[in-house]
Amino acid sequence: MMTDRPNRRFGPDFVAEQKGRYGHRRPEGRPLSYDLAVEDAYEPWRAWLDAQLALLPEKDADSYAWNLWKDQNFWSDHIELAAGEALRASGLGVEYERVWGIQTPDWTVLDEDGWPVALVEVLTHSPSKEQYGRMRAWRGLVERVKQIPVPVVLTVAGPRDHPLEPPDARTAKKIAQDLRRYLLSPLHRVEFPSQGYTFLLQADRQTGTTMRAPGMRTILIPPSGMAGVVSAQPLVAGIEKKISKYRSLAAETGLPLVVAAGADKFTGLGIEQLDCLLNGEHTVTVQFNYGDTFIHDPLDLQPGNPPRWSMPPELAGVLWMDNEFPFTATWRPNLKARTPAPDRLTEAWRC
User: Fold this and answer.
1) pLDDT, tens digit, for every residue of 6-50?
2) Cα separation of 123 and 300, whole Å?
């Protein structure tokens, strides 16, 4: 029983602590998850987190509580917790990181008598650390530019053959000072050079007049760092690595192996892309923001011969976890699985 632990890890005391720690900072100096941690609109989300952690052993809950608000852990920890909730929805029990020899799959599903009935490993498709670093650095400049009291929209000119590296904090401060001077000047300009970068004033494509930003502040739309074709191919490569890691354990125990998969919101990846790969369909999704000039890692598209992924026989299926709160689950079974997942487990996920 865990009745002695605090009921709310992310209640009013947590919100007050986050505001005290980060509220005095400029927005660019706050974690990307700051709004989710403090705003009233996200109180149901924080209550959901409290409920999930209350179901874990206290040591594991403490570790989650310490790490999950860090930018690099945010989505992977949420997907893992959401997978646990989806497994419990079957009415069966779950055990977090049960030790099987030298291996610890993320979740072990248990029947009413406490006997294991499935092994579940969680995978979250995320941007690389380098991409995260670039996005965070650009965000720092966006927040500085937002302080300029001129309601216009800017982009930054960039090369088409490689990513535009973001400015460091010192350079971003100088750029914001330069842009403030330019935009408050009576001289009308559409290009603003600063610190080796060129910023462009955006015009409405229909009227040709300067785009007016909502509110009374300047909006900078920087490169996203994630522009390009959205494909599930990197995800399934990760799934196959998980299968390789747990193949022997699944065979030795005779238990079905399930991979619960999801994606960081920045990647643009959804179940639609996974289904396209499973079905060998032609659908192409491109993620491209207004400020992008460079398409990362373009895929070799073959409309007449789209790629197709067949689940290996060691995999019982993929449980897709949506990254929109409240994190719904969708089941994609492997009809040729050597050891299928029990019906009792999958009934709650069928759509």
Assistant:
1) 568 999 999 999 999 999 887 767 888 899 999 999 999 999 999
2) 25
Return the structure tokens found at 157.
């000119």
Buried b (16+ CB within 10 A) or exposed e, 154-177: bbbebeeeebbebbeeebbbebbe
Rounded to the nearest angstrom, the gap between the alpha carbon of residue 340 and the centroid of all alpha carbons in its chain is: 29
Predicted local confidence at residue 304, as pLDDT: 63
Q: Are 115 and 253 in contact (CB under 8 A)?
A: no
DSSP designation for 258? E
CB distance 287 to 217 below 8 Å: no
In the chain, alpha helices (H): 12-22, 34-38, 43-53, 58-67, 74-88, 129-145, 169-184, 233-253, 271-279, 343-346
Contact status, residue 119 vs residue 249, Cβ threshold 8 Å: yes
Buried b (16+ CB within 10 A) or exposed e, 98-121: eebeeeebbbbbbeeeeebbbbbb
pTM of the model: 0.85
In the beta sheet, which residues pair with residue 200? 155, 191
Strand 228-230 to 285-287 pairing: antiparallel
Residue 181 has pLDDT above 80, yes or no: yes
Task: Using alpha carbons, list the distances in angstroms from residue 253 to 116, 133, 247, 260.
Answer: 9, 41, 10, 19
Of the candidates 40, 131, 85, the residue with the CA atom closest to the CA atom of residue 262: 85
How would residue 3 be classed by pLDDT, with cut points 50, 70 and 90?
A: very low
Instruction: Say how far apart CA 288 and CA 227 lie, in whole Å.
Output: 5
Crossing angle for the helix pair 169-184 and 129-145, nearest 10 degrees? Answer: 30
List the strands of the sheet with 219-221, edge to edge.
191-194, 197-201, 153-156, 219-221
Chain Cα centroid distance, residue 306: 26
Phi, psi of 302 (to 5 degrees): -125, 85
